[in-house]
Amino acid sequence: MFKKIDFSLVLKKITENHAYRVRDAFMQAENTYVRIDQKKYINFCSNNYLDLAGHPAIKKALVQSLDLFDVGSGASSYVSGYTRLHQQLEEKIADFLGRPKALCFSSGYLANVGILQALMSSRDIIFQDKLNHASLIDGALLSGAKLSRFPHKSYEALSQLLLQSSGNQQGLIVSDGVFSMEGDCADITQLSELSRKHNATLYIDDAHGIGVIGEGGKGSVAGFGYSCDDVPILVGTFGKAFGLMGAFVVGDDSFIEYLTQKTRTAIYSTAFPPAIAGALMKSIDLVMLESWRREKLLSLIAYFKKKMQLYELPVLASNTPIQPVMMGESYLALHVSQVLLDQGFYVRAMRAPTVPEGRARLRITLTAAHEESHIDALSEALANAFFSVKRKKDE
To answer: What CATH homologous superfamily does 15-50+291-394 map to?
Structure first.
């Protein structure tokens, strides 16, 4: 006889471990503010880094696209869901990133899971940074390949793993460009050199980099002269800096054509709405034309870091919009998050299993919609809450 899953017991354990997740339903979102149950908060959790999600020109492009096509795509891209707008979007993002060709997905998760399954098999081996995004880890596990994980940004450890594992098999090195919970950046130069030395393929997921960092907002690999030979697989998302939804992979013609034939998450998923594709093309234009958004964001990042230093708060070293303030224990992160919420700041606590046990944090994200006055107010409230909790803990 089988044993039924006791969901109430599982939920009880999740709650006891301070890992219970709550979804807050926003009543309204406007620039950097959100409303929950009629109360207004300054949002420091959004990945809408360039403040494009509510841009009037993007909204207008969305509406104009609805005049051409239905609200939904109606089918997979391989049946009848692929429109001229989807095709133009793929051409535009490939051109923006200086790659021959692109393939779009409905989400970054679907992109990573699908690509890794399409590329690798049980005969192969995948090397991943331990702090890579969950979609990369899950994609590797689902591919059936051997998964070998190295300590965060320990490229010496990666080198040793590559030496020990070389053989008659495909080797794939996979890393985030910007790590979503740490805010730091991978060393693309070292990764590229190691991949070349060991004849392994390099895969970079630059979801949090493209649009925000690099020359012209072209991400972690921009400005270094890396070609498709150096970084053959480059994945990005439209759900962060571009302000909408969906994801893409760019590469050379044969690679992208291979993926169009083999990637199950693209073949068997309904294509995202044509109007989204139309709106995304306008978003790419704005990323290219309005460089002031990145400039303002970089200025705010520097200002935030100075405030954290002034208040002696334990923030990780990051030069990106992701600024993690370390709490350690999950219950502390939850408590400080609630104190900030009571004072009008929307800041979520990140706990295990999203981050390693004992490494709970407040993941503060900055956007071009913020002002220095917002950072001033948050910093003071954060310092008061953090040191108040610390004093109680020490007593």
So the answer is: Aspartate Aminotransferase, domain 1 (3.90.1150.10)
